[in-house]
Amino acid sequence: MNKTRYSKSDAVKELESLADSAKRERYPKTPPEWLAPVKFRDDSANGLTRCIVSFLRLQGHQAERISNTGRPIDRTLTYTDVMGRRRTVGRFEWVHGTGTNGTADISATIAGQSVKIEVKAGRDRQSDAQRRYQDEVERAGGTYIIARDFTGFLQWYNQNFQK
């Protein structure tokens, strides 16, 4: 299987430059060559989410990653039997998260407007719960977008919020 090599888009390079400038402003007494460059990638869901959240925060907006996964609870018990062997009984149980089903990956406030951003990388598609959540957000007057790459997100941002 031949994978295509990742090539950073101009938008990601622009984000790295913006983050580096912000770092130099934050640490003005540190020589610039001592500051490690900030690196971003948008070829995975985690990487794209990090790009979007970082960009929005650098622009002065509020943005946070939302996680609605549950958590495992360890119900195992380890003991030593009468023969001196260690035994483990029981199992892990999964407790569902308490968030809303289908919630977006990123929740942001941009220029006073509620924006929910669903990150989809590769062949990933919206679930039925995510479509229902999108309808709820839009009926309430919020904005819901699906981001597939940072270049597309940046174009959407510039069309809707560029000063």
Summary keywords:
two-stranded antiparallel ribbon; 163 residues; alpha+beta; 8 strands
What does this molecule look like?
It is a single chain. The protein is of the alpha+beta class and 163 residues long. It contains four helices and eight strands. Strands 1-6-7-8 form a four-stranded mixed beta sheet. A two-stranded antiparallel ribbon has the order 2-5. The longest helix has 17 residues, at 10-26. The mean pLDDT is 91.
SSE blueprint and pairings:
Layout: H1 10-26, H2 45-58, E1 62-65, E2 71-74, E3 77-80, E4 86-89, E5 92-95, E6 106-110, E7 113-119, H3 128-139, E8 143-147, H4 150-161
Parallel strand pairs: 7-8
Antiparallel strand pairs: 1-6, 2-5, 3-4, 6-7
Helix pairs in contact: 1-2
Shape estimate: extended
The main sheet comes to: 4 strands, mixed
Number of helices: 4
Residue share in helix: 25-40%
Rounded to the nearest angstrom, the radius of gyration is 22 Å
Put the structure in a nutshell.
34% of the residues lie in helices and 23% in strands. The chain is of the alpha+beta class.
